[in-house]
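FORM 12-B: Structure-to-Sequence Request
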């Protein structure tokens, strides 16, 4: 007698249930708070959702005119390593021996997304990366909620807020996941899968903000965003399907970029100091307070102000006071002697000493610090504009956008492609202000492009007409040759993906006796990939889920669903109609076909 099968829930019903759950969780917030967590500088802004036309309020630090402040946090050396200062208060709060300073550490998460710890820039201390980020978020959360109370007389708890954290578009998944973990540790959310936390891509936020103020970005206009910050440079390309107030942008090309931010210019300056004064000097090491003070209080200002006036005078000099370094040289060195020896090695780039501690750099030498990053950025812009036809404007944004050298380099490439360079007012604020708008109107981007190809590793029966001989493996239990390194694709790089897009594959275990199925999630930048051991394929992680112990393997179907905003596995045992879910947030959407795994 055949068993009567229970009616199986449709995939559409599962999707609708997920969306309703997330909408209910997000609907409870009374404010949107955006945190632009940058490599060099950070800032926050917020808006109240009850207002008909919400006003965006920037977080203002006491005694500071700009709303972006240095991404520097002072923490106690003693557990639990609480933050005692952030941004402009770092110098005042730091006590040698008691505290440590973490500064500009965000790029370490890009260079090595799986790194577990961070070393302090000042004061010997090593902490988990998630703890350092959480301490920064704690300070910003506390200050935002305090400002709401004192300036708008509105007292809110973190649970009443939709938090928007900005991340570079090119950041790896592991770094994005780390941000969610830090947000939970900082008390922004209770769970890493909370819908009250949104990770927003920095160039997307910048585009949304520009749409509010640039009237020429009308329907059918194609434009690119070049977001140049302290650590990374991100690019995205959009077409305007509808202008505000019903903004609808569609991404035309997957996000790109690289680690070509302004901190690489800082690194060139530090190289000069080490050659000039001695590479082994303790005060010129990465964890030196003297070097931190010089880069923060002196060099940053000179770098930002290096502009048209200096460039128009090629024989001019740029003066930099390096007294904070000279005071800590061990053994001490005479600056005049150091300059003389340097000039003998570099007859075309003559330094000058003025007074006791001022170093003058030729304009040509100062310009050379930018050569490497500008070459990368120019090449990337050129390739992007050649790939996507019909781009009318390129919007230059981010903290690095004020650099005249960068502007000139980008303008040359943009005009060569027949487009126009636009530098909006206060380009360094576009991301944090746009992130608030993104939180208020999350559907402003109606189509995105997958940055990578995503999938899972599965097994198939070996087919000599299809598979290379090197992959043939004999399976004693099944008495057949198999291939165990199939890259089962869910989404292809540069694939167009609407919001909440999700695609499912069904799999089953290899053997009747298996009681679980393990998914190894893999990705690659390549659009065409067949096998999981190909060059450029990376493992993101794995998830193990149970299957019934009884029955044939082919009957133990497991449905795997990848979503736009989360990586979700829906587990279903068909005969009983049971359903379980496993969710790992911050994985990209996917699409693919059915395999027996």
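FORM 12-B RESPONSE
SEQUENCE OUT:
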């Amino acid at each position: 007698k055949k068993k009567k099968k229970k009616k199986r829930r449709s995939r559409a019903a599962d999707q609708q249930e997920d969306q309703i759950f997330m909408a209910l969780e997000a609907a409870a917030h009374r404010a949107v708070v955006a945190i632009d967590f940058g490599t060099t500088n950070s800032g926050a802004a917020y808006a109240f959702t009850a207002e008909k036309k919400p006003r965006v309020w920037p977080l203002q630090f006491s005694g500071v005119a700009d709303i972006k402040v240095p991404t520097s946090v002072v923490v106690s050396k003693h557990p639990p390593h609480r933050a005692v200062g952030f941004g402009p208060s770092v110098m005042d709060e730091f006590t040698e021996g008691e505290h440590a300073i973490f500064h500009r550490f965000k790029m370490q998460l890009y260079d090595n997304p799986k790194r577990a710890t961070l070393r302090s820039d000042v004061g010997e201390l090593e902490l988990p990366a998630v703890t350092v980020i959480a301490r920064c978020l704690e300070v910003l959360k506390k200050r935002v909620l305090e400002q709401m109370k004192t300036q708008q007389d509105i007292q809110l708890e973190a649970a009443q807020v939709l938090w928007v954290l900005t991340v570079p578009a090119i950041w790896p998944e592991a770094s994005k996941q780390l941000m969610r973990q830090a947000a939970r540790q900082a008390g922004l959310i209770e769970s890493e899968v909370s819908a009250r936390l949104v990770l927003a891509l920095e160039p997307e936020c910048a585009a949304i903000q520009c749409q509010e103020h640039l009237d020429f970005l009308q329907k059918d206009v194609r434009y690119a965003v070049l977001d140049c910050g302290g650590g990374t440079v991100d690019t995205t390309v959009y077409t305007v399907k509808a202008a505000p107030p019903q903004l609808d942008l569609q991404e035309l090309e997957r996000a790109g970029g690289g680690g070509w931010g302004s901190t690489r210019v800082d690194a060139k300056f530090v190289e000069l100091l080490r050659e000039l004064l001695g590479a082994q000097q303790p005060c010129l090491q990465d964890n030196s307070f003297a070097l931190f003070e010089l880069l923060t209080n002196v060099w940053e200002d000179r770098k930002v102000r290096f502009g048209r006036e200096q460039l128009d005078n090629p024989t001019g000099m740029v003066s930099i006071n390096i007294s904070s370094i000279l005071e800590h040289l061990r053994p001490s060195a005479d600056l005049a002697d150091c300059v003389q020896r340097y000039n003998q090695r570099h007859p075309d780039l003559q330094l000058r000493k003025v007074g006791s501690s001022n170093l003058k750099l030729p304009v040509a030498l100062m310009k050379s610090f930018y050569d490497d990053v500008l070459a990368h950025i120019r090449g990337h812009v050129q390739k992007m504009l050649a790939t996507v036809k019909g781009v009318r404007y390129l919007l230059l944004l981010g903290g690095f956008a004020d650099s005249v050298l960068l502007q000139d380099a980008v303008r040359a490439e943009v005009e060569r492609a027949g487009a126009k360079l636009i530098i909006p007012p206060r380009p360094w604020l576009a991301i944090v202000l746009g992130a608030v708008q993104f939180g208020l109107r999350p559907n402003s981007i109606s189509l995105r492009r997958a940055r990578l190809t995503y999938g899972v590793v599965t097994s198939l029966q070996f087919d000599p007409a299809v598979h290379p001989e090197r992959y043939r493996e004999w399976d004693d239990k099944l008495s057949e040759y198999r291939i165990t390194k199939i890259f089962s694709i869910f989404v292809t790089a540069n694939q167009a993906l609407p919001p909440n897009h999700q695609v499912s594959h069904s799999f089953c275990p290899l053997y009747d006796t298996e009681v679980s199925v393990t998914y190894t999630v893999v990705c690659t930048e390549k659009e065409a990939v067949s096998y999981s051991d190909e060059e450029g394929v990376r493992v993101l992680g794995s998830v193990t889920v149970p299957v019934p112990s009884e029955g044939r393997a082919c009957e133990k179907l497991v449905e795997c669903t990848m979503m736009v905003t989360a990586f979700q596995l829906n587990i279903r045992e068909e005969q009983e109609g049971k359903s379980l879910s496993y969710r790992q947030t911050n994985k990209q959407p996917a699409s693919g076909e059915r395999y027996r795994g």
